Amino acid sequence: MIKDRNFDDLAQKFARNIYGTGKGQIRQTVVWQDLAQILALLENNEPLQVLDAGGGVGQLSQKIAERGHHVTLCDLSSEMLKLAEQDIAKNGLLDQYRLVHSAVQDIDQHLAAPVDLILFHAVMEWLADPREALDCLLQQVKPGGAISVMFYNYNGLLFKNLICGNLTHIEEGMPHRKRFKLQPQKGIKPDEVYSWLTEAGFTILGKTGVRTFHDYMQTVRVGDYSFEQVLAMEQQLCRQEPFLSLGRYIHVYAQRPLNGTEDDAHTSNKDNG
User: Fold this and answer.
1) 27 neighbors 249 (Cβ within 8 angstroms)
2) Which among 97, 5, 1 is positioned nearest to 52, based on CA atoms?
3) E strand residue ranges, 77-193
4) Residue closest to 181 by CA, chosen among 126, 103, 121
5) Is 0.90 surpassed by the pTM of this model?
6) What's the pLDDT tens digit per position in 182-216?
7) CA-to-CA distance for 124 and 4, rounded, in angstroms?
8) Among positive and negative, which fits the CA dihedral 183, 189, 194, 200?
9) Half-sphere exposure of 133 toward its Cβ, with a 13 Å CA cutoff?
């Protein structure tokens, strides 16, 4: 049975492998472009209240904090929170942050009111019940606010196994291979995530494939390219099909309507009460 993953045992390695690589640079670059669009929509004269749910060391939320906004960062891993505090302090942003040791499903116990923006990046694929966690977070978005969700793409995982010839593994249902400790436990189907958002009354504003071809390139270099060319090409292709839907991750962002409707009534009781 899949359990929610706690990264206390791998926090240092996880942070290094995720953020200190070319993969991480592509991810940070294309997702930040989307976040800049979200911030342009939400920003006014007042600092935004932002939740970085399962935020790790908070690399992207730190860029938001640099713009003067307030961030609550929660994580199930106390070791990851220690790394986050060190990194945030190094960048002189601790005054903008509140660090909370909490599962994302319990974050309502730590928030005084719904927030303007939630980041929920690369967490759902590590959870036993990803929809439950997403639904909990959607209830914490204020009317007019937005959520930014990035998830490990089932289609990308399937395509990677197909081109590697892992057909028996696919026929077995692509079970998680324990020797790959930093590989997510499962892929999430994009259409399911999109429907979870719209069923909660949110309007999807944009979708982006994260690493639409980088991870599929042959390990042995056969072409003529630089990393700068790869990064530029990823940015060029990441928001158009069919490349978008083949991303190893997909980033989708959605807005909660200003006025509650019957469709999102179950997520807005707090706001309308």
Assistant:
1) yes
2) 97
3) 97-101, 115-121, 141-152
4) 126
5) no
6) 678 789 999 999 999 999 999 999 999 999 999 99
7) 9
8) negative
9) 25
